[in-house]
Amino acid sequence: MARIEKSTSQPQHDGQPSQGHGVTLEEAAVIADGAEHTKPSLWTLSMVRLYGCLFIGYLCATTNGFDGAVMGGINAMTSYQKYFHMVSASSSTGLIFAIYNIGTACSVPFVGPVNDRFGRRAGMFLGSTIIIIGTIITARAVNHGMFMGGRFVLGFGVCFVNVSGPVYVGEMAHPSWRGPLSGLYNCFWYIGSIVAAWVVYAARQKANGWRIPLYCQLIASSIIFIFAWWLPESPRWLISQGRTESARAVLARYHGEGDPEHPLVKLQMAEMEFQISTQGSDKKWWDYSELVSTRAQRRRLICVLSMAVFGQWSGNSVTSYYLPVMLENAGITSQSKKLLLNGINSPLCFVASITGTMFLDKAGRRPLLMCSLACCIICFSILTPVSKLADQNPDNTAAANTSIAFIYLFGIIFSSAWTPLSPMYVVECLDTNTRAKGKSLAQFFTACASAIIQYSSGPAFQHIKYYFYICFIGWDVLELVFIYFFWPETKDRTLEELDELFQARNPVKRSLEPKDLRTVLNTLQFESKAEDA
């Protein structure tokens, strides 16, 4: 029988690859066919166990979502404004929002190495610990400097969970359901957002009521802190550490119904053992060169960093942190009404994000993102003139109601695609050896982009009000064109099979071709060598 040997050409990571998969072409075809026709029920024992593990990862998004809504909410609270002598739209408000992202940016050099050296669980544990410390400082702040310091610490810790959480979820998710399971990660952003918005609303009349929602930020981070070490480690991280049998055991328990010979377990093990290096740059905390070492890696990085920026500059950061100000521009001046409308926004976006997640594997990543952007452009195009009408004539209730409707509609449309895909697409575009460092670099760009938009939005709303929306119309058009030409489709492939896609001369064109046996064989880099039977 002809045995197929592993190609002598190296995969696109530094260092030597781990031990070869050692399977024949015929065996690979059988395994691939078995895996293709093996899609488990969503409610098997293995899947239920997996949901419990992924839930802890999902809570990492909740910690970030809480901050977005809590700061937008307390920024409209009279007790907060009087205590710190703040104005809801000003450069000082923008700085308080932005310092969170400055903290995130400062933690980036440490996040990748912690995840690579100690594992994904360690990143979640350390991040939740820092968040708890930052929350206590912020909630007990007695002056402006202490409040700013607490938010810096919060941002520093959130970066750890924002990298470790989605990476863990993406690497642990069952390949047959990776789209919905990974997409759900960022949907939990709205769990934090919903809780924060309604706690702010409930505390609006209390003296020093602004402290209450800040203390609630302890809930999700405390759960992560308690349960992180009880989770199974990512099988891909285990492979990168040379712990092959531990990885096989995790895959069997959570993907193979306890059977190490399950087709999906065998296929993933073969692909991971070939693709993941045990001596790659992830073992060198200072080495980021692998992110740009080949054409394929540079193409990956372009997708990752553009997603990091696009996810913040499409208009969503404004609606998250400055929704009460946007409502004020639409003619809503009552504190209670602004906080009530702020509280309604998050549940609507949460439902939209869950709905969009269910279509990730059916519609694909690219169509959802591009359709979402096209609709966002339309929303801002209508929101700009009607906000002007509402502001110039407070008695024009039709204009005010239309403005509110399109603010909500923008949030719903954006959330249906960008909320589930923002972290998920980044994880998919990176290989295991660069995933933690690449995701932390993406987090740095996200933090910088978010800090810029948050700091500039306050003065922009103060000086040009609703005309600020025009900036997003033009930018979203550029995003749509860029995605069409540069972002490949990633659905229907395992994380390792995406390597074959990025190695292609035209990744976008290759990604639009259906997955077939060639995809698996190219992933394993077979080349024939006849052996005597």
Automatic annotation (TrEMBL):
Gene3D superfamilies (UniProt xref): MFS general substrate transporter like domains (1.20.1250.20)
Comp. bias intervals (Polar residues): 7-20
Location in or out of the cell: Membrane
InterPro entries xref list: MFS_dom, MFS_sugar_transport-like, MFS_Sugar_Transporters, MFS_trans_sf, Sugar/inositol_transpt
Transmembrane segments: 48-66, 86-111, 123-142, 148-169, 181-200, 212-231, 301-323, 343-360, 367-386, 398-421, 441-460, 466-487
Membrane topology field: Multi-pass membrane protein
Region spans: Disordered: 1-20
Keywords, alphabetical: Membrane, Transmembrane, Transmembrane helix, Transport
Transmembrane found in the keyword field: yes
SUPFAM superfamilies, per the entry: MFS general substrate transporter
Every Major facilitator superfamily (MFS) profile domain range: 53-491
One cellular-component annotation, GO: membrane
Primary site of residence: membrane
Any GO molecular function: carbohydrate:proton symporter activity
UniProt keyword Transmembrane present: yes
Domain of life: Eukaryota
Family: Belongs to the major facilitator superfamily. Sugar transporter (TC 2.A.1.1) family.
Name of the featured protein: Major facilitator superfamily (MFS) profile domain-containing protein
Species the sequence originates in: Coleophoma cylindrospora
Source lineage: Eukaryota, Fungi, Dikarya, Ascomycota, Pezizomycotina
